[in-house]
Every structure is written in structure tokens, then in C-alpha cells.
Amino acid sequence: MPDEYIRLLSGFSACDVADGLQNVYGLSDGGYFPNLSERSCKNGKSVVGRAYTVLFAPASDPRPAVNYIDAIPEGSVVTLAYTPELQTTMAPYTYVNNAIFGGLMAGRAQFQGASGTVVFGRVRDVDEFESLHYPVYSYGLGATASKGVVKPVAVGVPLDIVTCAAVPQEPAAGEGAGSCHQRRRTTMRIESGDYIVCDAHGMVRIPTANVDMEKLISYIKSSIEADQLVARDIARGEPAEASKKRYRSALSK
């Protein structure tokens, strides 16, 4: 059965969804996962689907490798990530230089009806992604396959993505106000089945278990309408802040 929420979310940008998650559910990160780059796109449209999660671990991991590529559910976003010890908060955000997704896998995923792929690591065969018109997002690019280095060990499991934030700290003696920052290591989780929305801005995840989809989508629609009215006022030369207050104050949360 077609997923109606996928159809509705396809009309929104990643920014629209992030605004909704921030304003309705108080998520300061808006569900946005940083540092991903668009390697191929879907004609400028948003890529939307349910997360089909795949966990990669070192080749030495005692768990056997799993075949994830031949069981992709239709309408899913294939989401690949490493175990935390293979992740880093600094670019290139993983210690693995090998690619874990390429052209052949993209072709197979597309045949099964996947909406796209997100890789918290490296990919290769970008020209094949483009020729297939298959959307792919990743941290980086690689040229070497993953054989003997890492392997997929689990499907449909939570993925913990290591990232960081620059957190303002109280300045030390002799430092100017606001000059002291500390990088804080944080972890963001993607659950199997979460809704994923990607576009040129990157990826936003909707934590499905904690979100009323009807409420979120209704807010996003109202927010877009309000922004259109603000944009109209700005084009007429009216003050932006007054216009935002006029239209955004009416949004229901």
C-alpha cells in the first residue's frame, strides 16, 4: 500500500521539515544530520522514504556479513552507517577510506524501488548514479571497494551517528567575551522506519515514534503559506520583522 506521508513529504524541502521539527517538537537540530553532500539528485526534488538501515563494522567483527542489497523495501531510503568506533567528529567523519556503496548497488536498489541512498561514509561510481538518475548522499568519495576492510553486519537496527557541536563556554581569565568554545561530541540516532527527507541541503530525519505526522505536516503547510506572505511583503518593501510577526504568530503549534 502506498505511504501517503511519503507523498505529502515529497512536496516539502529539508528546510521545511527541519523548521517543523524545531518549532513543533522543540528539536534544536531540526532532525538535520550535518556534513552529507549530494552526489546525484532527483531532478531538484526532495528524496523521501522510510529508513532502511544497514550497519557496517570492521571486517574482523565476529558477526557474519549480511546481504542487505537484495531485500530493500520499495519506497525506502537505504541508510548506511558504521559502528561508532569507525566514526569521527572531524572531516572526513570516518576512519574508513574505502567506499561502501557504488554503481551496481545503486542499480539494484533502484530496481527494487528505493527512493535513494544515504551513506555516512564514502561512495564511488558517481557517474553511474547520475546516469541512473538515482539520488545518493554521502560524507565523501572513494575509489576502492570495501572488501577486507568493512562489512554489513545488521539490517533494520538503530544507527548512531557521531557528530559534534561548538558549544559556547564561559571565557577563561584574560579572554574576551564569547571567544571560548568547546567541541562537544554528540550522537544522533536513526531508527529503522524513520522518515527521511533529503535535498540539496542534506538530510533530515523525522523520529517517527515521537512525532504526530498529521500535526507536523499541517504545521509545515501553514508555515510555508506564512513564509510566502512574508516574501510578498518583503518584495513590496515592507519591514521583514513586522511581516514575520504578523503571519507567523498565527501558526498553531
TrEMBL record:
Cofactor dependency: Mg(2+)
Organism: Maudiozyma humilis
UniProt-recorded Gene Ontology molecular function terms: 4-hydroxy-4-methyl-2-oxoglutarate aldolase activity; metal ion binding; oxaloacetate decarboxylase activity
Residues engaged in binding substrate: 102-105
InterPro entries cross-referenced by the UniProt entry: RraA/RraA-like, RraA/RraA-like_sf
Keywords: Magnesium, Metal-binding
Binding residues for Mg(2+): 124-125
Name of protein: Bifunctional 4-hydroxy-4-methyl-2-oxoglutarate aldolase/oxaloacetate decarboxylase
Source organism phylogeny: Eukaryota, Fungi, Dikarya, Ascomycota, Saccharomycotina
Top-level lineage group: Eukaryota
